[in-house]
Amino acid sequence: MGTLEAHIRLSDELGLRYALLAGDPARIGRVAQHLENVRELAYNREYRSLCGTYRGIPVLALSTGIGGASMGIAVEELAHIGIQAAI
């Protein structure tokens, strides 16, 4: 297994390129309703994650908590694991 990022607790072994970002961890459940083949990945502090497919495209969904600081941490760690685009 690749090295886990300190906060989001994910590694580059996921092989994902796209991420959907939600503030509140409770919103991840709502995102899951629109995905197929959903799999919970990690939950550390405000960072809850799952992966699944949307119209055949593998995506990661990650909560980012509240505020710019936690969003900044999430985006930096996502870049470390290979995410190329995030909404």
Outline of the structure:
The chain has a 5-stranded mixed sheet.
3D structure, described in words:
This protein has 87 residues and is α/β, with parallel strands linked by helices. The chain is built from two helices and five strands; from the N terminus they run βαβββαβ. Strands 2-3-4-1-5 form a five-stranded mixed β-sheet. The longest helix has 13 residues, at 68-80. The radius of gyration is 12 Å and the shape is globular.
Number of helices: 2
String of helices and strands: EHEEEHE
| Cα separation of the termini | 27 Å
> What profile does the largest beta sheet have?
5 strands, mixed
Uncertain runs = none
**How many E strands?**
5
Helical percentage: 10-25%
Percent range for β-strand residues: 35-45%
Quaternary structure annotation: single chain
Structural class: alpha/beta
Q: Strand sequence of the main sheet, in spatial order?
A: 2-3-4-1-5
Overall, the morphology is globular
- Using the CA coordinates, give the radius of gyration: 12 Å
Mean pLDDT over the full residue set: 97
Layout of SSEs?
Layout: E1 18-22, H1 27-32, E2 36-44, E3 47-54, E4 57-63, H2 68-80, E5 85-86
Parallel strand pairs: 1-4, 1-5
Antiparallel strand pairs: 2-3, 3-4
Protein traits:
single chain, alpha/beta, 87 residues
